[in-house]
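// run 5 | inverse folding | seed 20
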């Protein structure tokens, strides 16, 4: 047993010396990161949903409207409506029925959607965690009214 231990110790020492000879003595030179990035050097910040609000506004056209709300109590949606009305943002309350949009929603008037900035939307989402924003076609929405 003693001889096996000595043999394994010598093999281990031999392997250590052999492995050290394969290692380079000088550190490898790394090329600058700017050579790899190319045209992708800009950083684009997104809101919590992963959508840039300016991109959402640019996708709005005359047949699409911006809605705020979701699967939340009516009292919370009314509180959001009061807060937006105090900021001169015109909204219309409605209960929508649909596949993925059921719940209470606020339709933001097309002229007022420019007043709804990212900071305001972020503050609303902090106060109302269930709040969602959707772009929905203005025509052909099934409402409960």
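// decoded
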């Amino acid at each position: 047993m003693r001889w096996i231990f000595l043999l394994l110790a010598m093999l281990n020492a031999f392997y250590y010396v052999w492995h050290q000879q394969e290692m380079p003595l000088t550190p490898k030179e790394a090329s600058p990161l700017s050579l790899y990035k190319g045209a992708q050097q800009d950083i684009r910040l997104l809101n919590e949903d992963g959508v840039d609000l300016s991109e959402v506004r640019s996708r709005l056209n005359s047949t699409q409207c911006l809605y705020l709300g979701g699967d939340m109590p009516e009292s919370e949606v009314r509180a959001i409506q009061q807060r937006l009305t105090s900021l001169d943002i015109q909204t219309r309350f409605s209960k929508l029925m649909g596949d993925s949009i059921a719940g209470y929603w606020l339709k933001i008037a097309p002229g007022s959607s420019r007043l709804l900035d990212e900071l305001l939307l972020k503050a609303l989402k902090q106060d109302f965690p269930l709040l969602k924003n959707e772009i929905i076609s203005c025509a052909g929405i099934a409402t409960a009214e």
